[in-house]
Structures are given as C-alpha cells and as structure tokens.
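ASSEMBLY PREDICTION REQUEST
Request ID: AP-0331
Submitted by: J.K., bench scientist
Number of chains: three
Total residues: 925
Priority: normal
Notes: Please return the full assembly, not individual chains.
Input sequences:
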Amino acid sequence: MSLSQRQLALLLIAPGLILVAALFLYPLCFSLVSAFTGPEGGFSLQAFGNAFELYSSDILFTIVIVVTSCALTALAAVAIAGTLTLGENPWIVGTLRALYRWPLFIPFIVAAQCMRTFLAKNGLMNNSFVSLGLMEPLQAMSYLDWRGIIITFVWKQTPFVALLLAGALASLDRATLEAGRNLGASRLRILIELALPQVMPTLLVALVLSFVTMLSVLSVPMMVAGSQPTMLTVDMAFRINAYGDYATANALGVITYLISAGAAILYIRHGMAKESAP
Amino acid sequence: MSRVASLLRASLAAIVLAAFAFALIGPLANLALWSVAERWYTPYKLPVTYGTRYWEQVFRPTGDAMASLGTSVWIAVLTVVVALALSVPAGYALARLKLPVRALFMIVFLLPQAFPSVAIYINVARIFYNLGINGTILGVVLVHAAHGLVYSVWIAAAAFAAVDKDLELAARNIGASPLRTFFTVTLPSAAPGVVASGIFVFLESLDEFTGTFFVGVPQVTTLPLLLYNAAMGGNYQVASITALILLVPSVLFMLFIERFLRADVLAKVGA
Amino acid sequence: MRILNLAYSLAALLAASPLAAQTLNVASAGDQNMVDYVKDYLGPMFEKSHPGVKVVSVGTGPGDAGSQKIFEKLDAQKGAAATDFDVVVIHQKAAGTMVKQGLLAKYTDKVDTAKLVSSETAKNSLGADVSGYVIPMFQSQTALAYNADMLKNPPDNFAELKEWAKKNPKQFGYNGIKGGMSGVAFVAGWIYAFGGDAGKLIQGPYDPAEKAKWDAAFSELKDFNKNVVITPGNAGTLDMLNRGEIAMGPVWVDMFYSWQADGKLPPNMKLKLASPGMPGQPMYYAVPEKTAQRKLAEEFIALATSPQVQADGIVKKFNWYPGIDAKNLEGKLDKAAWDKLFTDITPADLSRNGKPFPIAPYFNDILEGYEKKVAN
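STATUS: Completed
Returned structure:
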C-alpha cells in the first residue's frame, strides 16, 4: 500500500494537530461555552455580569498596564535598535549589544523575584540611589504596585522587541539611510522618518506578541504587586482556586481574548492600510 | 563639531549607558545579594549577617530543591521528546510535501500564541481533572509540549525548507528510498535548526510556570513552582537561590545562541 | 522496532506512580510552614516508628484557596477506588463543606487522642457540625504586629486604628482577601467592629438580610484602604514589616514568632490584639473517606495530636497554640516555652478578644461584599 503524498503529509501532521486541538482548541471552546452558560444551563450573560461587578476596576487596570508597557517597550526598543544600527561610537554600540539581550531568556518568574526585592522601599534600587546621593532616604518609595508590574514587563520584553527590530533594521538597504545622512538629516530623523516606516510590520508583530504574552503572565502580578487592584490573570486564578467558579473565571478569560483581539485588529488594520497605500 | 561638544555627547551617552547597565544588571545582582543574606531586617541597607546557610538548606539531599530540579529536568526532557516527535514530521510535511490548505495549518500551529493562555490552562486543568491526569507528570508534559509545539513546528518547517533540494534529488537519483533520503540527507542537514528548537523547547519547559501552576499543583513541584512558593512564603533567600539555579540554563543557552542567531534570520520573522 | 520499545517504556514511565512499600500522602493547605512541619518534623518521626512507610507532604497553597483545592481533588475522585490523599490538613470552611458532601471519614472514635480535645471547634466548624470527622491540629490567632520603636502607643481598637491610618498614610498594610487568611481575618474583625452584631455573625442563625447592615462598614473600609498598603499575602505583610515599609499589619501570631526567631523580623516588633476582637482559627486533621491507608492515616494523626508532639512540635517549634486541651501539655513543656506564647498577648487578652471566624454563610457574604463593594 503506497500513500499518496497528500495522505502522507496529512498523516505526518496529524499527531501535532491533534495535540494542539486537544490542548488548545478544545479548552478554548470549553472556556467560551462556560463563560456564556448560565447556572441553569442555558445561554446567559450572568457570568459576565458577575465579572464586571467584581472586577471592573481590574479590567481597566489590566488594559492600562498592558498598553502602557507595550508603548514603553516600543520606545525603548526603537531607541536600542536605532542606536545599534545607526550608532557611530563603537564603544557605545558594542557595550549596548553586549548588554541589552540579558533579560531575554530570563523567565518571568525569575524577573518577578528580582523586581520584588529590587523595587521595594528598602530595595536595592532605592538604597543605591540614596547611597549615591541622588535622593533623600525619606523620599524612597515602594514601586511594588502597578509601576512595578510595568517596569518588570518592559524590562523583560524590550530585548525581545529590540532583537527583532535590530534584525529588521540590519537588513534594510543602507543606501536610503546614507542618502538621508548625506543630505544632512540628523540620525534621529533618519530613524523616525526613513528607517522606522520600513520596519513597521516587524515592530507591530513583536508588539502584538508582547501584548499577548503580558496578558498571559501570572507570576509577575502575583509576586510584584499587592492583591488589589491586580491584573485579570490573578483574578482568574483566585476565582478558580478559592471558589471553583469556572463561569466567572472563563468570562474574565473571554474578556482577555477580546482585549488581545483588539490589539491584533489594530495590526491587521495597519497592514491593510499599507496594502492599499500607493 | 568642536571637541568639547563631542566629548559632552560621549559622556552623556556614557551616563545613559551606565544607567541602562544598572537597570539591566541591578535586579540580577540583587538576586545574588539575597542568596547570601542570612539575617537582614530594617533599617539595614545591606544584610546583617552573610552566610551560605540557605545554600546548604536548598541543596540538602532531602530538600525540595533537588527533587524539584530533578522533576523539572525530567519533565523538560520528556517534553522535548514529545515535541520533537510531533514537530519533525509536521515540519517536514509543511516544508516539503504537498499539503492541502497549508496556510491554514500554519495558522493553527500559531494560534496558541495568539490567545492569552491563563484561561486555556484553567480549562485544561479541568479537563485533566476529569481524566484523572491532573497533578501527574504526564499532564504537565502534555501542557508543556503543546506550548512548545508552536515554536518547534515553525522552526522545524523553516529548517526543512532551507535544506538544499538538490542534495535530496541526488540521493533519490542514486536509488535511495524516500525514507532513507530523509534520514541520511534531509534530517542531518536540518539538524542544527531542529536541535536549536529542541533546546528552545527544553528551556521553555524548564521555565514554565503558569501551566504547571494549574495542572501540576500540588503533586508535581517544578523549580519555578518552588520559587513561587518560597517567594510567596517570604523566604527570599531560597527564592533567590532557586532563581539563580534557573538562570544557569538560560545563560548557557544565550551564550550558545550568540554564535548562531543571526540578525538577517530574525528579520524574516513575521514578515 | 527499537523505537516502539522505547515508546512503550516511556509510556510506562509516564504513567507509573512511584512504587514504595507504603506511602502516606499528607496534603496541607496553608503557608509553607505547614508543609515543612510534616516534611521536616512529623514525617521523619512517623517513618522512624513505622519502617517501610514513606510520608509524602504536599502543600496546596495558603488560605481557603488551598483547602478548596483539596476539596476539589476529593470531589473529583469521589467515584474512584482510592483518593490521592490519605491525611488532609484543612481550614474550617472547607471542613464544613467536605463533611456535608460526605468526603471525609468519621475516624475520631478510633483515635485515642481525640478524647484530649474538648474545645467547641472540634465539633462546630463555622456553624457546620463536624464532630467525629476532625481533630484540631492547632489553634492560631491573628493580631496586629507593630514596630515598637516607631509606634509608642499603638491603637487599642479598630476605631483608633481607623484614625491612626488616616493620620499615618501607607503605614498600615494587609493583604486584602487574596493570598492569605491574615487579611481575611482583618476584614472579618472590621465587620465585627463596625458591622453590627458580632455575636450573631459568630453563633448564627444565618439571616440574609444581615449583609445590608454592612454597607456603611464596607464603604468605610474602602476609604480606609486608600490610606493603607495592600500586600501580596501573609508573608508579604510580614516582609513589609521587616523591611520597615509599613509600621503595622495583621499577622498570624505563630508566623510572627517563627519569623522573629529566624532573624526575618527585627527584635523590636510587638503584637497587639485589637478590640472588639480579631479572629483565630484551628486547622483540622481529617481523613478522606476514600483513602486506601485508613489505619496508617489514623496512626499518623494520633502521633500528631499526642501531647509530646503537640508540646514539642506545635508549641515549641512552630509557636502555635495547641489543638488539644492545654492541660494535657503540663509536664511536657517547660514554662519558658509556654510563656513565650503569651509575651504580648496574655491569656486574658485571648479570652476577651480572640474570636472565631463568622459562620460559613456570613463568612461568604463578607468575602463577596468585600469584592463587590471595597475592592472594585
């Protein structure tokens, strides 16, 4: 019995597909069904009502944190990637290149533990600033709240976005950039007006991936910030662990899907705008 | 441009760089400091007593850390086996064979990265409960493998696509069967990419926290879970030491990948 | 087909559970100190007297969430032949639920040390009748810990605390209702103080109309929260006290003393049991109905509640109040160790201001009210 190439191909890809279907698609449908099912069993939005009643401020909190983190990440990544590509001082570029990738493979939970003790009121950061004379001891404040979460996310995700961006910038045609330089434009201007538009797709892909990643992290908000307000991931875990309340937890899950879908839609819209532009 | 101006510029850049280095290395140095702090309470800025007591506690043979490390590594190894066993055929099919609706399959393998995963893990845990595999190594390996499959399929597909078709044709021409060609020509050529994806999956599994938190607790304790429990229990020394242990494979991988990760390869991601 | 063989052996390895002569699985809800108690102290002791038995200690996490996980596990395995846990250490609310669902075995008549317990909590768990199903492991108490150097005159009751927090913003910290029971205890104490009839909340009967009376108390708590720090959990509060980031916060008395002994809290910290009262709770030893190791489980609990272990382990090592009656510890414990427990909080304080948690339905109403009206 000989298989046609088609059948062989399908056979080879089947096990992988089955795993993804079983461990992702099926639970995904499960979560949607659970979120939209009322206590009696029919279709109902009660779980969503419950979720809003209990966690509306956390929903806002989550959106603000993730959007701010992505914006700051984008800024930092552009600055780093731009310096790496357009920088002229070999010392600076070399040091930057050696340094910036360090947080890349550090897992979120390790980053959370680092930040937990680094950003505290008596943590290493504040203590260092006080020792250097940059601030008074009484001015020291704890960053272990929403700011700590944003700092941790930006710290962790910037190398990732910067890496992808640097790669994209490196493969640009230098002729256009040189032309800009010859005409007297500053490097900042070249970066923003010439280079960045060309690598926008890469930047947006990296940001969308970062966005979804940040919405999936449980360890950072649990370890770095207090318990309220907190991100939706912690609320979901709390709902399950303390009450076994799958309906509300899944309603919160659907809300996170919608948030990340919003981000993805922005990417697609930008991509479509590019396609239709002359 | 006068020398003074350029000197000023350079020093400004140096200061910014120093601040950047502090922001990057500071938190990690903090970890090292906590791992050797035996007694540390307010208002002291540095530990009151230094010592390696907690290292001994963490590494004692009956201790949790050794068992968790063993569990973590064992789970990671199994995850790599499962992930590669699934992604090598899938990657080959996607790269080389005529697959109907190929684009759709590629998207299916990308989907898990597009949805926030906590909600997924909650329901996977529920399903596993009903199947009786919640809290088992098998459950955790499946979750890690599904998570790692996303990367390894894409990398495997890229690796196989990059194999020189002429080499394969040459092998077929001198009479080798398709299976033989695959094992003697295609797979060895794609090996670096496959190995890289294997290492990546290993690392992801070792560091994985959220899925294990829902599926593995309480019987399966991996190193990240130990870190979390220690941190939430206020035992920062143990947490810091565990974090340092977790850093070792990551740093090794980073140094390894320095040699292989090329900028132009990365430029093609997502395009 | 070497690959096939390899696959089969891998599959067998994956599915196999560790083979031991006999394994006793002890699942504890609560902080890490609960798990360590079994792992480092009780487990080895039991293994020595029972050669061939291995004690495995797992923790399911702090607070009621940890007990909920145990409940879910037992519930999921209701139809199975044997459950994964042989001994469980659970909080009061979960104990009531588990007894109602028939998940626990009635075992205390087989254990001699059960006769040493006369406290009400062994029979009544937040309003649910649990007699015969549980033996208290310890009694614990929450209190306000404060830095005696920074705070010469700590507030005596909740009303004074409210004022103090307004005048000293961000100097008080507690963990809300997530991540640990010390914060939950604080909220319950707040409702006892400002929510009307504390006695009714503790004794019952349950009246759903009662929660309307708490609206004023909850809105005051919401204002109070603006002046305080919300910490990640039990250990989070203690840690912030240690680092001088807050000056006062609710803590479990046993954790407080243990941390001080470990050099994780400055020696100048003290405790205060605020009026009209702060909750304490026992944790219970229970045996799941479907355990395969019934006899071993009972022997383990007998060991854990024996006077000597209660004296050395519970009181001396871990600074809890004993679960069995205190008079059984006479002669087993030196006076210094006993007095240490009552340094800042005298037995008189305890009997006046140490209260149980509200009965389960009120308890749930308080938690829900907090989430809807204070946290949101």
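REVIEWER COMMENTS: Chain C has two domains: 2-139+281-341, 140-280+346-375.
SIGN-OFF: pending second reviewer
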